[in-house]
Amino acid sequence: SLKEGRKLLLVPRETPLSAIHLENLLKLYDFSHGGQKQIPDSDAFLLQDIKNIITHNFSRNISLEEISKAVYISPRKLTSKFLELTGMSFKEYTQMLKMEQASRLLYSSGKSVSEIAEELGFCDIHYFSRRFKMYYGCPPNALRAKKHREGAGET
Questions:
Q1: Smallest Cα–Cα separation from 62: which of 101, 15, 94, 86?
Q2: String of DSSP letters for 34-101
Q3: Which pLDDT value is given to residue 154?
Q4: What's the pTM?
Q5: Is 117 helix (H, G, I), strand (E, B) or coil?
Q6: Are the beta carbons of 25 and 47 closer than 8 angstroms?
Q7: pLDDT block averages, 10 residues each, the chain of length 155
Q8: Residue 155 neighbours by CB distance under 10 Å
Q9: Residue pair 141/113 in contact by the 8 Å Cβ criterion
């Protein structure tokens, strides 16, 4: 039963963490350990699995319990391990991934802000816009407008 759940939630490790994303996680790990340790491969794979699960389930707001079942670790142990490795909570991490994806979609797609918010699991566009502004310092439409100005050669 758990193996079937894992197949549904995980994607192959062929989709690696972006170099910048992994580098940031490793810096967080080094900082939280006084720069003395390197992250073990098993922990790097765990982080990659978690990122893949979250990003492939944005629209359904996957829970910590579902992730813990998929990676075969208790929610409590996973929470402490994740905090140890990244210095952030699952909620903070999930929000970060969603905001990064929102930014990419605003830059690269013709989707409306409402469509992007819905795709990322936000039921309320106003809440999405507030969260986006808190994260980037500007509303989603301003980021998209900046993209269009840059594309037109304006500064």
A1: 94
A2: TT-----HHHHHHHHHHHHHHHTTGGGT--HHHHHHHHT--HHHHHHHHHHHHSS-HHHHHHHHHHHH
A3: 56
A4: 0.70
A5: helix
A6: yes
A7: 38 43 55 58 88 88 91 93 88 91 91 95 94 92 81 60
A8: 4
A9: yes
